[in-house]
Amino acid sequence: MNLLYKSTRNSEKKVTASEAILKGLAEDGGLFVPEQIPTLDVTMEELKNMTYQETAYAVMKQFLTDFTEEELKHCIDSAYDSKFDTEVIAPLVKVGDVYHLELFHGATIAFKDMALSILPHLMTTSAKKNHVTKDIVILTATSGDTGKAAMAGFADVPGTKIIVFYPKNGVSRVQEMQMVTQKGANTSVVAIHGNFDNAQSGVKALFEDQVLAKELDAAGYQFSSANSINIGRLVPQVVYYVYAYAKLLQNDEIQSGEKINVTVPTGNFGNILAAYYAKQMGVPINKLICASNENKVLFDFFRTGTYDKNREFVLTSSPSMDILISSNLERLIYTIAGQDGQKNAELMDALKSSGAYEITKEMKAKLDDFVGGYATEEQTAQAIHDTYKRTGYVMDTHTAVASCVCAQYREESGDETKCLIASTASPYKFVGSVMRAIDAEYAGRDEFELVDELEKLSQVAVPNAVKEIRDAKILHTRECDADKMKETVKEILEIEV
Ligand SMILES: *Cc1c(COP(=O)(O)O)cnc(C)c1O
């Protein structure tokens, strides 16, 4: 069966998977969604014995139906190889009475590697399939992790350039060093004077700018996106929820058909949406627990049905979740609006003009699968501290938000369903905050000094991603104001300003 994709703002026009990947965002500003979510066509019994790569093929082939078996397998094998520091790619670790799905064993030690190690291959394959001759310019806004993971994937890939915008004072020291030391003649990094939402809105505006599109075209370029608005990011993320369930089954941690809860530390709503898609494919998932930090727009949304970004933006110790406009939520809104592109477009227009929208009662009733929760900075630090003292396991700040919200939910609801936590970053990436949470004595120390302390304490070897940047040369120093992103892109691409 051939699965087509349509925009969340207009259900008329349909494109193939490879076209959706190439475009990134639909021309009307909407996000591409599959016409329907396919049902898994392999059983859990079969999945139980599959490797990560085999699972990836079983899941992705149902979404990317215009890729041949050879093409898709080539993409998968090129992505999930020795760039990961473990053969199982995404290990499942039991910590106390919950299961952590460690998604940070790739090149840049955050979960973004799970999708961004394959996206460049999906993109270049899609370009070939659609006879694209122009260079693809990947434009990316990052709250810290996407930027590095995308550059690691696209560096020196022929026919591509990548430009990353990150908030100047909104990322950890390790994250910033990872980005500004990135090699590859086709990579550019820009620190913007603003926050992540400014970067993301700016990038979206560039995508929608038809004048710029013409200028790019004349210069031999076309834009695409490596943000999770690209369906090519989302589909590979469905894989690890299927894989995790099958492994829980294989390890006799659950019985066949037993439901599990999944808690996801959430920013742009991509990762948890992938879990929702996995549930729709048939994975026995009960509740999807959406964990926020103090930027708790989503918590308020699930409670009240009103999405309201008009509030103070808080810089937290989990910077990859410091987001007030969760772009992938649009895909869920579209679904609960009964796939009504016009209704969704009205709400998104309201969000753009007034910063808020309210969903109908009928729509809210369809959100039963989700539970929202949030953790304060203090609770997050406490979770890291307590888990370390109790079990010896060291979590990063984002994972700690999820761990905390998962425990709150259990206590408040009495729901004892077994819980999977999406563990999204290595503690080494946020070593300053992590060590301070473990012991206040570490406060104020240099992050790179603390790396060695963390190694002693956690007995987990310092990852290559951190070793590499210790002595690496800074290669990118470009900065710009949030309203000068267009000029900056033209400068980088050497298009007349
Ligand atoms: C990006 C990121 C998140 C948020 O994921 P979304 O898909 O944007 O919701 C959480 N934790 C870490 C470490 C991240 O890099």
Instruction: Walk across the major sheet and give the strand order.
Output: 4-5-15-10-11-14
Give the tally of β-strands: 16
Task: Supply the number of helical segments.
Answer: 22
Q: What is the total number of structural domains?
A: 2
Helix content: 40-55%
* Mean pLDDT value: 96
Distance between the termini: 47 Å
Major sheet details: 6 strands, mixed
Shape: globular
The stretches of 5 or more residues where confidence is low (pLDDT under 50) are none
Any idea what the CATH architecture of the largest domain is? Answer: 3-Layer(aba) Sandwich
CATH class of the largest domain: Alpha Beta
Q: Kindly report the oligomeric state of this protein.
A: single chain
Task: Give the helix/strand class.
Answer: alpha/beta
What ligands can be seen in this structure?
Answer: pyridoxal-5'-phosphate
Radius of gyration: 21 Å
